[in-house]
Amino acid sequence: MFARVTTVAFEGIEARAVDVQIQIGPGLPAFTIVGLPDKAVAESRERVRDALNAIGLALPPKRITVNLAPADLPKEGSHYDLPIALGLMAATGAIARDAIEGFCVLGELSLDGSIATVAGVLPAAIGANALGKGLICPSSCGAEAAWAAADMTILAPQDLLQLINHFKGLQTLRRPVPTPDAGDEAMPDLRDIKGQETAKRVLEVAAAGGHNLLMIGPPGAGKSMLARRLPSILPPLEPAEMLEVSMIRSLAADLAGGRIGRTRPFRTPHGGAGRRRHPAPSGRSGARPSRRAVPRRAA
Ligand SMILES: Nc1ncnc2c1ncn2[C@@H]1O[C@H](COP(=O)(O)OP(=O)(O)OP(=O)(O)O)[C@@H](O)[C@H]1O
Ligand SMILES: [Mg+2]
Questions:
Q1: Which residues on adjacent β-strands are paired with residue 142?
Q2: Which ligand 1 atom lies nearest to the CA of residue 225?
Q3: Which has the closest alpha carbon to 42: 13, 84, 10, 71?
Q4: If you take atom 16 of ligand 1, which residue's CA is the nearest one?
Q5: Residue 295 confidence class, pLDDT cut points 50, 70, 90
Q6: Site to substitute for ligand 1 among 200, 224, 229, most atoms within 8 A of C-beta
Q7: With a threshold of 0.85, does the pTM exceed it?
Q8: Residue 271 Cβ contacting ligand 1 at under 6 Å
Q9: Given CB 3.0 to 4.6 Å as the disulfide criterion, which of 70, 101, 160, 291 pairs with 113?
Q10: Is the sign of the CA dihedral 222, 224, 230, 231 positive or negative?
Q11: Whole-angstrom Cα Rg for the chain
């Protein structure tokens, strides 16, 4: 008994197609996942088994092998639960094998069979659309997926039972609708700043010309305060930029309710982010840091 389901793996904001192959064959009962799964993917065995049990489907006491191809691409995240579960259902004949053929699938399963939110649904939907496939995703991510294309098929079930009923024709899942964009979020305005005329002028020039800015000044001089107000004088995002920004927010699970905004993003990474704690002495990479961090003063 063999079945295959398409899902995705993320490389940056790109979604790469992953083929979930499921083989149920004779042998001692076992359930193995191969194809560079990380811990979350390896643990999906338990979630899939219990979710299927919850809807009254038991796994056959046979040798089950799940292969995530391409085998050399690392698979991270919890969104492999749903494709594995659907593949198992297709392999055991619980759903028709061709029902899931035209879909790219992602979703995390709860033990009761409900489908939980996952990150990266928007890039996955764009990737699926490029492959000419529809998308099956958690119901909470449906609105986000609907932004990818107006004409692609999107199924956003709340649980496994809804999906099976849809495939059997007992219930029809409606295509989710994209939530209207969030509009202009309240953001700090450049006009709040008193004084600092030169700095404000520089900000305006940089915004108009699309230049980079380097701010140097003592603590409390107002660098962060000025930088935070730069988006307020930048033009709203173009549709293509909006999608690109939203894909990053989708992967960071920061796209609440699938609301896509047109304001330019502003991030304040911590000053220490990316700084190495113990820089290795040159020529001795990997050596233990010296105990004497501060050079002894000359007597
Ligand atoms: N021209 C100004 N008008 C009004 N408030 C100001 C002005 N300059 C600084 N402040 C106040 O000082 C606070 C600290 O400024 P800010 O955090 O931007 O400093 P900074 O230059 O980023 O400092 P650091 O180098 O420590 O990050 C601001 O939040 C603001 O309340
Ligand atoms: Mg600052």
A1: none
A2: 18
A3: 84
A4: 222
A5: very low
A6: 224
A7: no
A8: no
A9: 160
A10: negative
A11: 25
